[in-house]
């Protein structure tokens, strides 16, 4: 998976490299917006899926890596990798950084108690470290992590975020249980832990079933509604007034 | 006055996600055009997909600052379903 090269070392072992296409995205670093753009172009053929299915995966990669670039202050950028489980038709994505962590990032604009509070705020719609205004500013909406969590939830998958000494893990939603996009992450079916070994940066892992994305548009509509309700407490729909031509 | 038409795919390719480019478009083209009394057409032809963050960086300030008047100032051309959905999402939460 390219651990040694990604860390800047020569691989001490002799390995047989498998063909990447449709199997995995090797561990690599993404440091800025241009590298992110190039990375997204690189992964499209590796995903080995339809354009329709790849939309949501590219969306997730873009939002999570951009968070690192904009907020983490991580000199080394984002560490990114993914594997594809053909049997389960599932892609597992991992993104980490060794930056300042969520607490320092969110505390720039919000009062926080501890690392767990920072994680929960980061998952709350409309909260960003860029401004104390709920709903964000002209550059950030405080929506990226909420959207990503909801995307994992929509396919009844796991989502984990670990920063500092705490983590939040979204548990699997059982097949017979309705999926609800909660603006308050503590109302999710989740596991929360504190007092863990300190991790200075932020780590996110999630799974997505790549065969379930034919309704990406509907998914975005639903998550958007949940975000709007979380931030504004109302659900006004102006869609008919937008000039789509 | 002829509206300013910006063909997004010329700047971003078929996946419009680069927020730095969205910010540059907003600050250098969209906002100055509107400030001078002009209109803007954002043409998403050949854009297969985008992100909430990109659309937010591109248009949310216009709707936050100008409210419902912004509907008369910006046109969204050639959007496919997912792009329309993201534009609607950002407009809906940007308007107070």
Provide structural commentary.
Chain A has helices spanning 3-6, 33-47, 51-72, 101-107, 115-122, 144-154, 216-232, and strands at 24-30, 78-85, 90-97, 159-164, 166-170, 190-193, 199-209, 243-244. Chain A has 245 residues and is an alpha+beta fold. Chain A has a single domain, classed as Heat Shock Protein 90 (2-Layer Sandwich). A 7-stranded antiparallel sheet of chain A has the order 1-2-3-7-4-5-6. The longest helix of chain A is centred in the N-terminal third of the chain and has 22 residues, at 51-72. The mean pLDDT of chain A is 87. Chain B is α/β, with parallel strands linked by helices. Chain B has one domain (4-94). Chain B has 4 helices and 5 strands. Chain B has a 3-stranded parallel sheet with strand order 1-3-5. In chain B, strands 2-4 form a two-stranded parallel sheet. The mean pLDDT of chain B is 94. Strand 8 of chain A pairs parallel with strand 5 of chain B.
Q: Name the quaternary structure.
A: heterodimer
CATH architecture of chain A: 2-Layer Sandwich
| Most strands sheet of chain B | 3 strands, parallel
> Biggest sheet of chain B, strands in spatial order?
1-3-5
What class do helices, strands and sheet pairing of chain B give? alpha/beta
If strands are numbered along the chain, what order do they take across the biggest sheet of chain A?
1-2-3-7-4-5-6
| Principal-axes shape call of chain A | globular
The termini of chain B sit apart by 29 Å
Largest sheet of chain A: 7 strands, antiparallel
The Cα radius of gyration of chain A reads 18 Å
Search tags:
heterodimer; A: 245 residues; alpha+beta; Heat Shock Protein 90; 7-stranded antiparallel β-sheet; 7 helices; 8 strands; B: 96 residues; alpha/beta; two-stranded parallel ribbon; 5 strands
Summary?
The complex is a heterodimer of chains A (245) and B (96). Chain A is an alpha+beta fold.
């Amino acid at each position: 998976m390219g651990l040694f090269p990604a860390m800047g070392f020569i691989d001490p072992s002799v390995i047989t490299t498998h063909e990447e296409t449709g199997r995995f995205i090797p561990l690599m670093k993404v440091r800025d917006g241009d590298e992110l753009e190039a990375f997204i172009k690189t992964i499209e053929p590796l995903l080995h899926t339809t354009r329709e299915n790849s939309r949501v995966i590219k969306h997730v990669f873009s939002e999570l890596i951009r968070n690192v670039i904009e907020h983490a202050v991580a000199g080394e950028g984002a560490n990114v990798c993914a594997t594809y489980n053909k049997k389960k038709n599932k892609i597992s994505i991992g993104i980490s950084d060794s930056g300042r962590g969520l607490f320092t990032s969110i505390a720039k604009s919000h009062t926080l108690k501890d690392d767990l509070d920072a994680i929960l705020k980061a998952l709350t719609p409309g909260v960003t470290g860029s401004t104390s205004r709920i709903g964000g500013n002209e550059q950030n909406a405080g929506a990226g992590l909420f959207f990503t969590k909801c995307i994992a939830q929509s396919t009844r998958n796991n989502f984990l975020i670990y920063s500092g000494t705490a983590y939040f893990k979204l548990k699997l939603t059982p097949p017979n249980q309705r999926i609800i996009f909660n603006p308050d992450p503590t109302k999710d079916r989740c596991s929360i832990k504190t007092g863990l070994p300190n991790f200075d940066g932020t780590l996110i892992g999630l799974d997505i079933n790549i065969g379930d994305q034919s309704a990406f548009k509907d998914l975005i509509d639903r998550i958007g509604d949940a975000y709007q309700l979380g931030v504004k407490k109302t659900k006004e729909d102006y869609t008919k007034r937008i000039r789509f031509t | 006055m002829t509206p300013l038409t910006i063909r997004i795919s010329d700047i971003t390719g078929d996946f419009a996600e680069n927020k730095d480019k969205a910010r540059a478009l907003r600050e250098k083209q969209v906002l100055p055009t509107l400030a001078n009394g002009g209109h803007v057409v954002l043409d998403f032809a050949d854009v297969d997909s985008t992100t909430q963050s990109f659309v937010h960086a591109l248009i949310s300030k216009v709707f936050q600052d100008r409210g419902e008047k912004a509907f008369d100032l910006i046109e969204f051309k050639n959007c496919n379903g997912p792009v329309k959905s993201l534009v609607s999402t950002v407009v809906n939460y940007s308007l107070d």
